[in-house]
Structures are given as structure tokens and as C-alpha cells.
Protein 1
Amino acid sequence: MTRLHLTFECDGTTLAGTLDPAPGSGGLLLVTGGNEIRGGAFSGQAALAARIARAGFSVFRFDRRGVGDSSGTNRGFRKSRRDIEAALAAFRAIAPQVDRVVGFGNCDAASALMLGEGAGCDALVLSNPWTIEDEADTPPPAAVRARYADKLKDPREVMRLVTGGVNLGKLARGLVQAAKPRSAPSSLAGDMAKGLAAFDGPVRILLASADRTAQVFAERWDAGDDRVRRCDRATHAWIEPHARQFLDAQLLEMLRRA
């Protein structure tokens, strides 16, 4: 496998990028979340790029300003639109056969793509978007209800309750949290919704059912949005074998769309 490392410019600073080339006319721009480098935790994003490239689609990854091998000041995901736009321009320049780019981000990288109205991408895959502004506001009531529902399906948990093996004080606090109404949308979620509404390309929203970030997002998003796809028993980074297969399938479906 050929993998090309390169640099490109963004508002007077030098950013680092990596291209996994492939012959297809579709490409994936992989936007990294948090302060994570473009290889991802335990090289997870590098592995994802290799898998997608083997399927025939070029993948471009990059470190935004102030992160990893890129120079400049880290301005955070809310102010990363220019970084994404610069990476997209570099991707198109280094892989001229790519005429349609799907932007993909997990966590606050998904939020950045939404806030940036797609940042010039042709389609978006948004994974577990970050909408949390106050950590005290989590876990959401729906997440607590789901956890208790799962426990009641487990005979061992039921036996613990019957035999007094459950902390009743903790149980009471959990039931109070579960009884709360659906949490109100945050201002961040509202800004993300406005940004996404200004994007006119195809969108797919992926939620890992066991992920707190995804659970909070679901509480604050339109429950009837038919662009949402869920994967049971999946966690935030899609590390479970079935979750990884789900993620790859969703990305490839979007990349293959005309």
C-alpha cells in the first residue's frame, strides 16, 4: 500500500496531511476529533483509511492547526472550518481524479462539519456528534432508562436486586434521573442544526447505542430525522468488530452514491 505524507498551507500556517490513494472518483476526507492526531487513537483512523482505500476510495487525513505535526494555534473544533477547507483543497489538488468528497468526523469533528455547513464537502457522514456544553447535564435521562432496561433483561441483575445486592440509594437517584423529561437542546446543538440545514448534500448520522455522546445527541436532536442510523452495542470509537463493519459499510455506501 502506498501512503503519502505531505504538508499544505492554512492561513499562513503549515498543516500536515496523509493520503491513502486509490483509483476511484470518490474520496473520504477524515476529520479528526478533539486534540487527536490524524492517525487516531491506537492508529484507528490510519487503519480505517487503509480499509477504505483498499475498497477503491482515496482517503485524506490531517492535523488541524496546533495539533500533532501541524503548526499554529489550536483554536478548537468550533473554529476549525478553515482547517477543513484547506485540507479539502489539498486533497483535491493531490488526488485530481477525486471529483466527489465525503466528509467524515466522529465526536466534535462531526460537530465541526455541521457548524461549518459541510466546509465544501459533497456529502457528510457524522458520527456521534458532540453537543455537550455542561458535563453536569449527563448522563441524559434516556441513557439511564436504557441502562435500567438492559439490567432488567439480565437474570443476574434481577437476582442482585432481589437478594439485596443493589445499593438502594444509588438506585433511587438513578430512578429520579430516569424520570426526568427529555433534555432541552443546547445552544451548540442549535448552532449545529442551523449549520447542517445550510448544507444541501447527502447526510448520514451514525449513532453508537452504548455511547454517552451519542445518547446526549439523540436527546437533543429531531427524533424523526430519517438520516440517523444506529448500531446496537457499539461504543464511541466503533472498536467492536460488528461496529467496525457497520461503520465501514455506511461510509462505503455514501462513497458509492452517484
Protein 2
Amino acid sequence: MIQDLPIFWPALAAGLLVTATHVPLGIRVLERGIVFIDLAVAQIAGLGVILGDWLGFEHHGVAVQLFALSAALAGALLLNLTERLWPEVQEAIIGIAFVLAANAAILLLAANPRGSEHLKDLLVGQILWVKASELPLLAAASTAILALTLRWKARVGFYLLFACAVTLSVQLVGIYLVFATLIVPALATQRMTRRRTAACYLLSGVSYAMGLALSAVTDLPAGPLVVCTITVLGIAFFLTFKPRVPT
């Protein structure tokens, strides 16, 4: 396992940076009752990546990143508009947006001989491929998003920051882990009245560390292991934590 440290410490650092932005956003998502917005926006960002790649741009190049960000921002603004116009059916609209983006991505990948590989990367991510040289830029972007998240409370601002955070993370950790990092800690700590954010950070950070360690030992994919770890720990926390009843 020691020989794997050059691979796993950048992956852990990337996971902690994703956690830094997704914990406060996840708490707000849960409070707003739009749980599946992260799946929809992540899938739309992924569609942007696939579209850029389909048009012939380098898969990890700047142009593809701009496609992903543009798609995510457009999707976020559209969902912000639908929330204002039809709030009573917003969750259904989010589900439709997710299904539409997912199937559009499948159609674009249908003629690609590596289509199934690209789709798998989009879903489970490539966190083990994160390089140490990528971390400073990721840290700077995450710090900016976190700072704005704590200061910017407007609804449209929330959607735009959400789109930026998801675009930044979806290609690193995949759609499934984006969802788990956003929702599981927020749900597991929902009954807490004090130090909830700190508990979310602790739960997510420990889950990334354990999941990556299990991946090193078992040689199983890191992303799914982290998803399973954070879910199991989240369920255990939710079931064992009992808020104090006022006397």
C-alpha cells in the first residue's frame, strides 16, 4: 500500500477539495427540497463534455471544459427559471432534465468505439488519475466557490455556483460520487442542531480516506467504493445520532 501513496494522496486531496464545496451546497439543496438537482446538473455538464469530445476537441482540453461549464450554467439557469415559474413541479422537471441529458449523451456516444468507456468515466469518475500538478488550480477554484457560497444567498447565485462546483467535480469523481458527497452527509446530519457542517466535513473526509484505502487493498474501483463507504457511514450516523430532547 505504501507504494500506492503517490497515486492516492492526490486523489484524497481532490476528494477533500470536492467535499469543501459540496457540503454547504448539499445542505442548501436538502433544505430547498430539490435533492436531484445535482444529478441533473452533473449529467448536463457531462453532456457538455461528451458534446465537445464529439465535435473533435481534446477530451481533457480547455475547449471541452468550456463546453461542460457552458452546459451546466445553461442548465442551472433553466432550472432556476422553472423553479420560479412552476415551483410545484420543480422536482419532476429536474428528473426530466436528467433523463433527457443522459439519453442525449448515450446517443452522442453510440457511434464512438470508446463510448462505453467514456460513459463509465462520466458515471464513476477518474479520481485515481488526478495529478498533483492539478491540485493548486483545483484548490484555487474550490476556495473561490466556497467563499462565494458562504456569501451569496440569492437563488440565481446558488444555481450558478452549483453549476460551477459540479462542473469542477464531475470529471474527477463522477456523477454518482458528486451526488453522494452532496446529499449523504447533509441527510445523515439533518437532525443535528449544532456543528452540523463540521460533522458533514468529517463524515465525507473519512469516507474518502476509507474508500481510497479499500481500493488500494482490494484493487476495486475507487469511486464506487467511496460511494458505498459514505453511504454506509451516513446511514450508521443517521441511525445512531439522537438529538437532545428539550426538558
